[in-house]
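Whiteboard transcription, Tuesday session. T.W. wrote the C-alpha cells on the left side:
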C-alpha cells in the first residue's frame, strides 16, 4: 500500500468512526425516549439534504450529506405557553412553539416530550452524553490493554557480544573484551523472556526491574525459543551506566558532565512494539484522560486564543492545544501511513490500530465533555433545563405552591442560536488554524 493511499485510508476510518460514534450518541437519546413513549419521527446522521433514508414504523432513519453531527427529532420538545404569559405574536419564540406543537397529532398529546417526569427527561437527554463516555472508555480499554502502547517488549532485538569499557558508547568489540553476560548465558536475538529469576515478565520494564533486583548472582531465565521454553542461567555484572531522565536524555552534574551509577548489566536490548497496559492501571489512566478532556473544554476560550495567535504567527502551535477537524484528519492520516513509504519510520500495524482507537476514544471523551456545557442547543443545556425544572417543582411543593409545570425551553431559543453561531465560527477558525499553523511533531 502506498503512503498516500494509507493516509487517505486513515482519514476514511476516522470519518466512519466519528459517524458510528454520532449514531450511537443519538441512539442514547432515542432508545430511552421511545421506551418512555415519546414519539420519535426522525433519526438522522448528519445535516442538510437527505442522502439516504428508510422508514421503520413511525420513525424515518437516514443519513444526510453534511457529517457534522446528527439528531433525533422528539415530538413536543417545547411546551405550550404558560397561562398569563402569551408569546409575542410573530416572534421567533411564538413561531417555534407553534411549529413544535403542530407536530403533536390528535390523540398523541400524551406522547409529547415535555410531559415526561424530570428523571425521565434527564435519562433521555443525558443518554447521548453517557454513551460517548462509555464508548470512549471502551475504545481506550481496547487500545491500552487489548493492544498496548509503544514500548519495549520482552522479545530480544539484539544481544551484545562483548563487554566493552563503556557499554553505553556502542563501540565495536576488541579482542581483549570479555564476553557479555547475555551472550555467555546463551541468550539470542528473537528470544522472548517469559520470566527472570522466577518473576514473570510482560514488558521490558519488568525485565529491567528483575535484572536490577537479582544483582550479580546467577539466576534462572526462562525464554520462549522456536515454540519451546528454554531455561538459561544468567549472571549479570556491575558496570557504570549513564543516568537518564524520563525522556532518555543524560542527566548532567554541576560541571555539565553526564552522571553515572553502578548497575547490573546483561547486554540485551528489546524489540519495540505494543506493550499492553496492566488492567490495574486502567482506571487511573482513563480517569486522567476524562479529567484532562473536561479541563480542556473548561479552558476552551484560552485554547482558542492561543490557536488564533498561532495562526497569526504570534506564537508556536502547541501539540496539546485545541485542534480542529482538519488537524484531527491529519493525525489520522499520519497514524495510518506511519508504517508505509520508503522514507517513513516503520510502525507496526498493531500500534497504528491502537493509536487510531485511542484517537477515536479521545474524540468520544471530547464529545462527552463538550456536551456537558449547560447551554442550548447542546445536550448539557437540556440537562440543565430538566434539573432547573426539578428544583422549581421541589421548591413549590415544599412551600405549598402550585406546580410551575415544565421549563419553557422556547425562551432559551435566542441563546441557543447565539451558541450555534459561535460553534460555527469556532469550527471555521480552527479549520483555518489547522491549515496555516498545523501541529507538528
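and on the right, the sequence the group agreed on:
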Amino acid at each position: 500500500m502506498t503512503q498516500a493511499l494509507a493516509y487517505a485510508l486513515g482519514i476514511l476510518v476516522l470519518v466512519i468512526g466519528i459517524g458510528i460514534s454520532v449514531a450511537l450518541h443519538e441512539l442514547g437519546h432515542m432508545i430511552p425516549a421511545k421506551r418512555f413513549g415519546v414519539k420519535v419521527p426522525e433519526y438522522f446522521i448528519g445535516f442538510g439534504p437527505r442522502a439516504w433514508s428508510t422508514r421503520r414504523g413511525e420513525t424515518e432513519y437516514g443519513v444526510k450529506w453534511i457529517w457534522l453531527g446528527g439528531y433525533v427529532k422528539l415530538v413536543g420538545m417545547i411546551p405550550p405557553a404558560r397561562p398569563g404569559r402569551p408569546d409575542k405574536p410573530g416572534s421567533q419564540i411564538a413561531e417555534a412553539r407553534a411549529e413544535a406543537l403542530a407536530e403533536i397529532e390528535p390523540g398523541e398529546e400524551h406522547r409529547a416530550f415535555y410531559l415526561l417526569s424530570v428523571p425521565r427527561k434527564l435519562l433521555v437527554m443525558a443518554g447521548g452524553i453517557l454513551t460517548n463516555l462509555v464508548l470512549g472508555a471502551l475504545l481506550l480499554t481496547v487500545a491500552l490493554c487489548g493492544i498496548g502502547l509503544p514500548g519495549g517488549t520482552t522479545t530480544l532485538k539484539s544481544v551484545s557480544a562483548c563487554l566493552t569499557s563503556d557499554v553505553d558508547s556502542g563501540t565495536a568489540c576488541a579482542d581483549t573484551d570479555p564476553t557479555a553476560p547475555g551472550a555467555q548465558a546463551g541468550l539470542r536475538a528473537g528470544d522472548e523472556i517469559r520470566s527472570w529469576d522466577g518473576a514473570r515478565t510482560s514488558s521490558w520494564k519488568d525485565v529491567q526491574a528483575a535484572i536490577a533486583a537479582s544483582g550479580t548472582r546467577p539466576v534462572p531465565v526462562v525464554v520462549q525459543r522456536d515454540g519451546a521454553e528454554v531455561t538459561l542461567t544468567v549472571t549479570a555484572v556491575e558496570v557504570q551506566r549513564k543516568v537518564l531522565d524520563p525522556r532518555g536524555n543524560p542527566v548532567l552534574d554541576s560541571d555539565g558532565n553526564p552522571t553515572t551509577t553502578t548497575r547490573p548489566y546483561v547486554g540485551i536490548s528489546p524489540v519495540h512494539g505494543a506493550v499492553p497496559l496492566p488492567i490495574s492501571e486502567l482506571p487511573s489512566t482513563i480517569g486522567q484522560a476524562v479529567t484532562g478532556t473536561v479541563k480542556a473544554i473548561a479552558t476552551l476560550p484560552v485554547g482558542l486564543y492561543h490557536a488564533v495567535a498561532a495562526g497569526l504567527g504570534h506564537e508556536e502551535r502547541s501539540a496539546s492545544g485545541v485542534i480542529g477537524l482538519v488537524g484531527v484528519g491529519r493525525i489520522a492520516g499520519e497514524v495510518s501511513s506511519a508504517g508505509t513509504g520508503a522514507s517513513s519510520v516503520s510502525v507496526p500495524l498493531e500500534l497504528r490500530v491502537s493509536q487510531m482507537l485511542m484517537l477515536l476514544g479521545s474524540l468520544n471523551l471530547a464529545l462527552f465533555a463538550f456536551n456537558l456545557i449547560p447551554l442550548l442547543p447542546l445536550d448539557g443545556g437540556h440537562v440543565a433545563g430538566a434539573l432547573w425544572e426539578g428544583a422549581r417543582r421541589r421548591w413549590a411543593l415544599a412551600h405549598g405552591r402550585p406546580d410551575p409545570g415544565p421549563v419553557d425551553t422556547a425562551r432559551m431559543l435566542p441563546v441557543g442560536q447565539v451558541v450555534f453561531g459561535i460553534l460555527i465560527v469556532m469550527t471555521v477558525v480552527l479549520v483555518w488554524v489547522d491549515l496555516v499553523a498545523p501541529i507538528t511533531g
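Someone added at the bottom: The mean pLDDT is 90.
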